[in-house]
Specification:
Blueprint lengths: L3 E4 L4 E3 H23 L4 H25 L2 H6 L14 H18 L4 H19 L1 H6 L6 E2 L1 H6 L4 H6 L1 E2 L2 E3 L2 H21 L7 H18 L7 E2 L2 E2 H19 L16
Antiparallel strand pairs: 1-2, 3-5, 4-5, 6-7
Helix pairs in contact: 1-2, 1-5, 2-4, 4-5, 5-9, 5-10, 9-10, 10-11
């Protein structure tokens, strides 16, 4: 499979970069529409989006590099070659969330409601961005057979793309993309509910994504490791706990998403 989408001679455009960009733009579109609806100014939205995305990408890369430190210390130039893959979603979530907390506190914006808005666009961006892994032939799972993939109703072009070095592999990137799309639809439905509380969309996102990631990660062969533990599974368990707390924390309070303002007066 050709990883290069466009060869311009002096530089190449990779499919991985294209799908990451498409994921980012899709997330921004969804987030911008809702934040505008909630009364946030265009400049504030763009400032918050630009820096949270930039810091999130840097965080995702640093996270990945730290868990592959021996390799990157021996080949430091590889650190900047993001087009080869190597962005850890959990690292991006941690760094991006830290910046959002700082930004919203500084501008007196309801932090938890901002996160509720962002997770709806974020999970769609993740679903799209995962297709970059397909073209890089990474983030796949264990060895399997053509028949097993065919019997799982996997599209033929994906089966063909999972034929790597003479063997067929499980397309875990595809499973994560599909579950993320389903999560996006569920979040949209939940957001329309007038009884939804602030924090519950974020809580649902953390639980939905983390449960799916935990089981999908168990199938992967290229996981980031902490000793014998798959770090993504450990982080997923922690995020599930945080998600449960967010859902039930304000369950008895009148902290409704559609009634409470985004700007704190």
């Amino acid at each position: 499979m050709n990883r290069v989408a466009l060869d311009l001679g002096i530089f190449q455009v990779y499919w991985y970069s294209i799908f990451i960009l498409l994921g980012v733009l899709s997330a921004i579109f969804i987030i911008y529409k809702e934040m505008k609806k909630q009364g946030l100014s265009k400049d504030t939205i763009l400032d918050m989006s630009f820096y949270s995305i930039l810091i999130g990408i840097i965080g995702a890369r640093i996270y990945y590099v730290l868990f592959n430190l021996d390799y990157y210390l021996s080949s430091p130039i590889e650190i900047i070659k993001i087009y080869n893959g190597g962005l850890a979603i959990h690292g991006g979530l941690i760094a991006g969330c830290a910046y959002l907390i700082y930004f919203t506190k500084k501008h007196k914006i309801n932090t938890l409601k901002v996160l509720d808005i962002i997770v709806v666009g974020l999970i769609l961006g993740q679903a799209i961005g995962r297709w970059g892994n397909f073209f890089n032939q990474e983030a796949f799972g264990k060895l399997t057979t053509y028949e097993a993939l065919q019997n799982s109703y996997i599209p033929k072009f994906i089966i063909d793309g999972m034929y790597i070095n003479g063997e067929y592999y499980t397309p875990t990137f595809f499973y994560e993309s599909i579950t993320s799309i389903i999560g996006f639809i569920l979040l949209l439905i939940m957001r329309k509910n007038k009884r939804i509380k602030i924090g519950q969309l974020s809580g649902f996102y953390l639980i939905w994504y983390s449960i799916n990631r935990f089981f999908i990660e168990g199938l992967r062969t290229d996981s980031l490791m902490l000793g014998s533990i798959k770090i993504a599974q450990l982080v997923s368990l922690l995020l599930i706990i945080i998600g449960i707390i967010l859902i039930f924390k304000n369950i008895k309070k009148r902290n409704y998403y559609h009634e409470n303002k985004l700007i704190i007066k």
